[in-house]
Amino acid sequence: MAKIELRNVRKLFGSNEVIKGIDLSLQEGEFIVLVGPSGCGKSTLLNLIAGLETLSGGEIIIGDERVNDIPPRDRDVAMVFQSYALYPTKSVEDNITFGLVTRHVAIAERERALADVAALLHIEKLLDRKPSQLSGGQRQRVAMGRALVRHPAVFLFDEPLSNLDAKLRVEMRTEIKKLHQRLGKTTVYVTHDQIEAMSLASRIAVMDNGTIRQFGPPEEIYERPVDLFVASFIGSPSMNLFSGRVIEQAGLRLQVEDRAGTVLFPIPKSLEAAARPHLGGELILGLRPEVIVREGAHRPGADTFLFERAIDVVEPTGPDTLLVFTLGGIEAIGRVDPQDKVPVGTMFRFEVNMNRAKIFDPATGLHL
Amino acid sequence: MSAQAVAGIVRAGGMRQRVLRVLLFAVLCLFCLYYLAPLFVMITTSLKPLAEIRSGSLISLPKQVTFDAWGKAWSTACVGVRCNGLKPYVLNSVIMVVPAVLISTFLGAINGYALTKWRFRGADTIFAMMLFGAFIPFQVVLLPMARVLGVLGLAGSVYGLILVHTVYGLAFTTLFFRNFFIGVSDGIIRAAMIDGAGFFGIFFRIVVPMAPPAIVVTVIWQFTQIWNDFLFGIAFTVGDSNPVTVALNNVVNTSTGVKEYNVDMAAAIIAAIPTLLIYLVAGRYFVRGLAAGAVKG
To answer: Which of B 180-199 lie inside 8 A of A, CB atoms?
Structure first.
């Protein structure tokens, strides 16, 4: 186990700056997820921690040691790759123990470690097989076994579940979380899947374009996104963002207009102070789909507001049905119970819980 | 595509198709005949006594099968002034071809591995320049190479020939291995680095075990090229150190005495047998290796 410190970490490929001065501090035993759109630099950052890429600036500290000039094999890290990267000519057993063989671990100890890992991951029966004879989920387990067997200080995962089918992905996700709860190793996990990020992380780092936009626990990232990027990236379907004008009419209101008419969202008391300086100007109102529901569906005590719009598209997802409508020129999504769905084209009365509304400054994109 | 997958594809039926099919096979058979006829003539002629060759037709089967010509070609035929047959020269060729193939294949494998998996600045330029070596006509390098061999003290020896073939084979062996390794996932190499293996550790324990298709292709190619080479053999060796190709020429092109067609044919077949054998033994891997771009795993 070890803590990890990144100090002003920078990476250039040629003249292209991929990582633009990142500071990050990981506690011992934490499960950190780096999430972001493709090309944001999250995998590069992981490779920098692993030592598979050389730093262009800054420093990385694992445990108490500055590892800038330490090669991957001496960093006491293990990594699970998206493509599994199993050695195709070696049996499962040899795949798992290769890292021990290169480190000249005694045979007896090697076999004990192998038996432990095989039991932990339920792959005892696969030890003689070649990777080509395994299913995707089994390969994934072997790849994890190869990482676990050395008892490294740090685990690094590079999109380990993206090659699995949906059902297996959820299963393995739970398995990874269980393993982490059991072993308590410091873990850095890269994914572009924000649900994976939310469900696994003790803290999430949302990355964009070589920088970290926000670093915090999943609930905080979800409920208090620092800016429009984080707000729209985390959450599926993503947050509805309506832009409108701030006016005063029995309290502050946000006026959102389109051809179907005007909707005056009341700005809740808690946000009034933040919104007042923008009176007469523009603001962006963020409402997650689960905040826009059927009339009367919110729990009592919610600061509710009603508006009506015609339904453009109905998307059943199983537990909920998504209703797509147009408001203020954007396609917005509300989430209702399946029995509340209505035919396309009909008017629907939506109820919004304004307590959970967020407002953003359109100029800076920052959460107010 | 597997045979089964191809067999399952629906074909158009009808008379016209059937006629076209017959025509297709007729043409293929004709080509086969055209290709195999010389081999047939060589084998039958090598088994005939000289008298029968003079009297009979070229394509008739031998009335009396004799292996005298083979024996003579192997151990008593005159190559130049010496009459020890092809035997010593076959040995020369073996002494030359085995190390030349092994060394050039090994170096090609390391080159291909380094060029694809340990990318460094200018790797592509170096590869392009090496590739250029595959297109140099060998006549161009004869004189400079002769000078180099002279300086090294290897002129006129089998060892000089080993060096020449190794050097000029590198372009091809590097190309083969580079194209094979480019299909090997970088993730595997990275995983091995994290597992604690170094440049050669990864090469010998991970990469080489994955490479038999490329190794087979390269070995067959190099063996065939080097065994069949005549130009370097005649340019850089003398008399006793000639490879079998040069010796064969000296047997066949002799201008003295009676022309012994059966001995010539037997000698030519002896010179060709090793490459035929290599293809028969490893040929299916050759085809598979050429087809196998990437390795799944």
So the answer is: 185, 187-188, 190-198
